[in-house]
Specification:
The complex is a heterodimer of chains A (631) and B (473). Chain A is an alpha+beta fold and 631 residues long. In chain A, strands 1, 2, 30, 31 and 32 form a five-stranded antiparallel beta sheet that branches. Chain B is 41% helix and 25% strand. In chain B, strands 8, 9, 10, 11, 12 and 13 form a six-stranded antiparallel beta sheet that branches. Chain B has a five-stranded antiparallel beta sheet with strand order 2-1-5-4-3, with helices on both faces. The chains are: A alpha+beta (631), B alpha+beta (473). Chain A: Residues 381-530, 531-605 form the Mic1 domain.
Chain lengths: 631, 473
């Protein structure tokens, strides 16, 4: 059952030459590029990015073993670290590759741990004694020191999205000093301490970079700490502790994700969900930090869904033995050769694959029974629209007791998001009207997939539901009214086609008294009564076809539309009943209407009622015709 | 004397087809004490009148007969079943000189046909609501069962009729709707739908607030009579037990139990079931509810009538009578409805107050009115005080009420739209307006106004008070 796995690897992985004794593989999280460096670059460097634009191949001189290799943004400058003392640069503008130039670190006796690009021409060297922030002048083939900071560093971690660098300091390594970079400026953020599971007996490095990851979740930067199970505490399993790192202000421990097991873990962030892979059980867990489970001032979260493996994946055979006709072989998931990078990348260096991890929403439908919670979950996902609509359709055919309460909860959740979007849109257009100068500060709101509007509901859910056989009409009406109630509750103007749907359903089941009561309380009227015209026509048609001529007339009069209806239609229907008194009544009604509208009881030419006038005279005589009052 | 305005009430049939046994045609006769021969004579007379008038218009036999002392009303609710009500004309005693007994003058024109004709029809509807049609009873248990049912019902019911306070509103037999904003109305819809969904035995629901209707799942005609029962009988018994105790002509043996229940509920300040068990926790509680019969024309459904109240909100849940209601059902309903209804009732109250406040401070209006819409039976009256079990109090002089009744009769005769303006003896202006299916009666207290001014005033009133009601000019 492939449709129960909620995690999968991207269908078209980035393929590269697998790592070997002659081929070193590097990954750059900033540009998401894989570097395959053969023989120190002498026999070629192949760069593969997420798409072909970012892929290229070149040669460089073999000047020793490459420790680290990364392009600046836009592949403008390549930086290669081959020693602990210096970094070498190659300009790729205007044409690649030109000869190298080199920069040694300024601090005496310091060794370079690594480097990160912050813009296309700005780079930070991280040494064991501090950081050095440089600007590269490619034409001059030289670097200019912008700023430096001296601090003892155990290891570092960089988040390219936000250009924030974390440095592990102190002997135990659990005090983190973050720095933020922005075009030629570097600012120190407030440092914070990561709580270790137990106080170590000796002073030694206790926090490993393997247990730390940084990622943005819901547009906020978080430091994720994989806190292993400790025998001294009573915690039943490992947990992931999230520290929220704001641009300004102090970093706070905000979320705890309970893993309820122990072992080796790896973290990814996909679609704002924290994914925790557990190697020994070969399963993954997902957490949504916005699903509220309050406990003290730190949110403690349980997995949203039961632990499941990533969807089994097959890869085509590679190498000389592979023939095109051979069937793909299953790929070993959770392999020990996997490396996991933020936010959503899994690399198998030994096989030469780079995958993006993806969340499939459809399986969550059956995994999460609580529909309210499911909606909360889905509304925050990227490609949620069709899944949400199918949840709605599904819950309406379920027919469980207490279903309406669930339906109401779901509608309210959808309409809350819908309303927020409408308000933002409204605020935007108000700002636009007030003048273009101010509107530049106000961005047009983005319509995410979570905005499910009335036409979506109508098209994908309600119209087909209202015509479904075997569903009680009582339930159909209840659901439609519940949706209208929810829209009203959020002060969203209801579209006329929803009213029409209610009216149609009521009329089909002869529930005229209900219809009447709704009209009486203006539940089925929008600001423009003319819009109801189509619905009214439909009701009249249904009634006339059932030969309920008086009923049709009564109805159209109750909605104030009798001045505009076609007299001929009614007279035709009345004639068909073979009830001459009924015909008389209808005829007289329209005479009176004509009188009121035009001061003359006669029908207009355009109404094509001549035939009926003749018939009337035949049956009731000329004298029965209404006379025009002459004054 | 008012308490005996009904001189006689007769229910007779020629259904038994027993020409030789005139007595057997009589199903119910009030008062019982009347001698059999006289009964037979009176029934014979009624029969003769109806048969005689039928020759003039076969489809519309006589509805009433005017005599000096009485007025008789005839109603044939089901084929061959006749109901007759004889109402005494009011009397005025004029003292005579010389110690002679005073002369009695009958006021023959005081009684309005349409009012008492409607009362008679209402008697039938009320009977039918609780007992079903005459014919059903006859078919099920013969004339004996029918007589038994009639006696049981009418003995009590006639004592609760207050003919002296009947007026135009009885002609309309309308329903007062509670004014409510759309959102709160939708919340009530949602509540009703959810209860009906989770308690699938509930077939129909009606929702009332402050004795006014907000929602009915029943058809209009059934709701009309159920509404009458609720507002003039069931609710007053529970809300005004003291009043009912002192002034009500309800006999103690009839009212005793109900009165006791009512008081207990009131003293407890507790809401809950108005019909059925008083206390769910009572181990001896009986789970019996009144039965009503609706849709007699088509499906003929027999239902348990469960009325549940929380603050000013009352909900009728109607459950198929073939199902026996258990303690579990009542507890479940109580648990489901109780908390939600209390919340909803306070919501309604709050919204109502907000709306009332926003419509500005209430000034004592210069006019009083009755409005009725034949389409949805909506009625509204500022003439009538709150209706109680005993009397319906009006705030205007009976003469004015009589004028309203007369205007209504005029309207009923003609199909077209009309307007009638009357200057009453007491300097009041009375205006009747009939437009489409709606009728409006206004009483203006403007002594020195002329016809044009009155006309203008009524136009203004229609524009402000009834702006969403369509009036033809």
């Amino acid at each position: 059952m492939s449709d129960e796995y909620y995690l999968e690897l991207s269908e078209n992985p980035v393929q590269f030459e697998n790592a070997s004794s002659v081929n070193n593989v590097f990954f750059d999280e900033a540009n998401k590029q894989v570097f395959a460096v053969r023989s120190g670059g002498a026999t070629g460097v192949v760069v593969k990015g997420p798409d072909d634009k970012n892929s290229l191949a070149f040669r460089m001189d073999d000047k020793g073993e490459v420790k680290c290799i990364k392009f600046s943004l836009g592949n403008k400058i390549l930086a290669v670290q081959r020693s602990t003392k210096s970094v070498d640069f190659i300009n790729f503008i205007p044409d690649p590759p030109q000869s190298e130039f080199s920069q040694e670190c300024k601090t005496k006796n310091a060794s370079i741990l690594g480097f990160c690009w912050t813009t296309w021409n700005e780079i930070v060297f991280v040494t064991d004694q501090g950081i050095e922030f440089y600007q590269i002048l490619p034409e001059k083939r030289s670097l200019k020191l912008l700023k430096s900071q001296s601090i003892n560093v155990n290891w570092y971690m960089y988040c390219p999205e936000t250009a924030v660098l974390l440095l592990s300091t102190t002997v135990q390594g659990n005090v983190i000093q973050p720095f933020a970079f922005k075009s030629a400026t570097m600012s120190k953020m407030s440092k914070f301490e990561i709580e270790l599971p137990s106080v170590p007996k000796q002073a030694k490095l206790s926090l490993s970079e393997r247990d730390i990851a940084v990622a943005t979740i819901y547009n906020q930067l978080f430091v994720m700490y994989l806190k292993h199970h400790s025998r001294t505490t009573n915690s039943p399993g490992a947990e992931v502790v999230l520290y929220h790192l704001p641009r300004e202000g102090t970093c706070k421990k905000t979320h705890v994700l309970k893993l309820n097991t122990t072992g080796k873990f790896a973290l990814n962030v996909v679609d704002n969900l924290v994914v925790v892979h557990h190697q020994s059980s070969q399963t993954s867990l997902i957490f949504d930090i916005k699903l509220k489970e309050l406990e003290g001032n730190v949110n403690v979260h349980q997995p949203v869904l039961p632990a499941l493996s990533i969807n089994p994946y097959k890869v085509p055979l590679t190498g000389p033995a592979a023939a095109p006709s051979q069937a793909p072989v299953p790929c070993e998931l959770y392999s020990s050769s996997w490396s996991v990078f933020q936010p959503d990348i899994i690399i198998s260096a030994s096989e030469g694959f780079l995958w993006y991890l993806q969340v499939k929403l459809q399986p969550t439908l059956n995994l999460l029974q609580d529909k309210g919670k499911l909606m909360d979950f889905l509304l925050r996902r990227r490609d949620c629209k069709m899944v949400i609509l199918s949840v709605c359709s599904q819950m309406l055919v379920g027919g469980d007791k207490g279903n309406l309460t669930v339906v109401a909860t779901v509608f309210d959740k959808l309409n809350q998001v819908y309303k927020e979007y409408l308000d933002a849109e409204q605020a935007y257009s108000t700002a636009m009207e007030s003048g273009p100068s101010r509107s530049s500060t106000c961005k047009r709101p983005v319509r995410t997939q979570a905005v499910i509007d009335q036409s979506d509901m109508y098209t994908h859910v309600l119209s087909s539901f209202s015509e479904k056989k075997g569903v009680k009409h009582k339930f159909i009406i209840a659901v439609l009214m519940e949706y209208i109630r929810s829209l009203n509750q959020f002060q969203i103007p209801v579209q006329h086609y929803l009213y029409e749907l209610v009216i149609k359903t009521l009329v089909q089941h002869n529930l005229f008294y209900m219809l009447h009561q709704f009209l009486q309380y203006h539940v089925l009227s929008d600001s423009k009564p003319l819009r109801l015209a189509t619905a009214n026509d439909e009701i009249v048609e249904v009634l006339l076809s059932k030969q309920q001529v008086l009923g049709a007339l009564r109805f159209i009069r109750s909605v104030g539309g009798h001045d505009n209806v076609s007299a001929r239609k009614f007279l035709d229907a009345a004639r068909q009943t073979n009830d001459s008194m009924l015909f008389y009544t209808i005829f007289r009604f329209f005479e009176q209407r004509n009188m009121k509208l035009r001061g003359n009881p006669a029908f207009n030419q355009g109404e094509h009622c001549e035939e009926h006038v003749t018939y009337f005279k035949q049956v009731f005589g000329e004298n029965a015709m209404m006379k025009q009052v002459t004054t | 004397m008012p308490e005996s305005m009904i001189k006689e009430g007769i229910l007779a049939t020629d259904h038994t087809n027993a020409d030789d046994q005139e007595e057997k045609k009589i199903l119910f006769y009030h008062p019982i004490e009347i001698e059999t021969n006289e009964k037979i004579r009176n029934v014979g007379l009624c029969e003769a009148i109806v048969q005689f008038t039928r020759t003039f218009c076969p489809s519309k036999p006589a509805k009433s007969l005017h005599t000096q002392k009485n007025r008789q009303f005839f109603h044939e609710p089901e084929e061959s079943y006749w109901m007759v009500m004889v109402v005494r004309n009011p009397m005025v005693e004029k003292p005579n000189k010389d110690g002679k007994p005073p002369t009695v003058e009958y006021q023959e024109e005081e009684i309005i046909d349409s009012v008492y004709g409607s009362v008679l029809q209402q008697c039938y509807s009320m009977y039918k609501l609780f007992n079903g049609t005459f014919n059903r009873a006859f078919e099920a248990g013969g004339v004996e069962l029918l007589i038994q049912k009639l006696e049981k019902f009418f003995y009590r019911y006639l004592q609760t009729l207050h003919l002296q306070s009947c007026d135009l509103l009885d002609v309309f037999g309308g329903i007062s709707f509670f004014p409510l904003d759309k959102m709160t109305y939708l919340k009530i819809q949602s509540f009703v739908n959810r209860v009906e969904e989770s308690m699938s035995l509930v077939k129909y629901t009606a929702f009332l607030y402050n004795d006014q209707l907000i929602w009915s799942g029943l058809e209009q005609e059934d709701m009309r009579i159920l509404y009458k029962y609720l507002t003039t009988s069931l609710f007053p018994r529970h809300t005004e037990p003291e009043l009912a105790g002192r002034d009500s002509p309800l006999r103690p043996e009839v009212a005793g139990n109900l009165l006791h229940y009512g008081r207990q509920r009131l003293d407890d300040g507790r809401d809950g079931f108005l019909t059925g068990p008083v206390n769910l926790k009572d181990p001896d509680a009986k789970f019996r509810f009144p039965r009503i019969i609706v849709n007699t024309e088509e499906s003929y459904e027999e239902l348990h009538l469960i009325v549940y109240k929380a603050m000013s909100a009352a909900v009728c849940f109607m459950v198929n009578a073939t199902v026996d209601l258990s303690r579990e059902f009542c507890e479940q309903l109580d648990g489901l409805v109780g908390p939600q209804l209390t919340l909803l009732a306070s919501d309604i109250c709050e919204q109502y107050n907000i709306n009332r406040r926003s419509s500005g401070p209430e000034k004592e209006p210069q006019f009083k009115f009755i409005y009725f819409n034949h389409m949805n039976l909506a009625e509204k009256s500022t003439i009538h005080m709150r209706k109680t079990a005993s009397v319906s109090l009006t705030s205007v002089h009976p003469d004015l009420m009589k004028i309203l009744g007369d205007i209504n009769c005029d309207f009923a005769r003609i199909d077209e739209d009309e307007e009638i303006i009357v200057k009453a003896m007491t300097d009041y202006w009375v205006v009747g307006k009939k437009s489409d299916q709606r009728e409006l009666y206004v009483i203006l207290n403007q002594k020195n106004a002329n016809l044009i001014e009155v006309n203008e005033e009524v136009k203004r009133l229609c524009a402000t008070q009834f702006n969403n009601i369509f009036f033809l000019d």
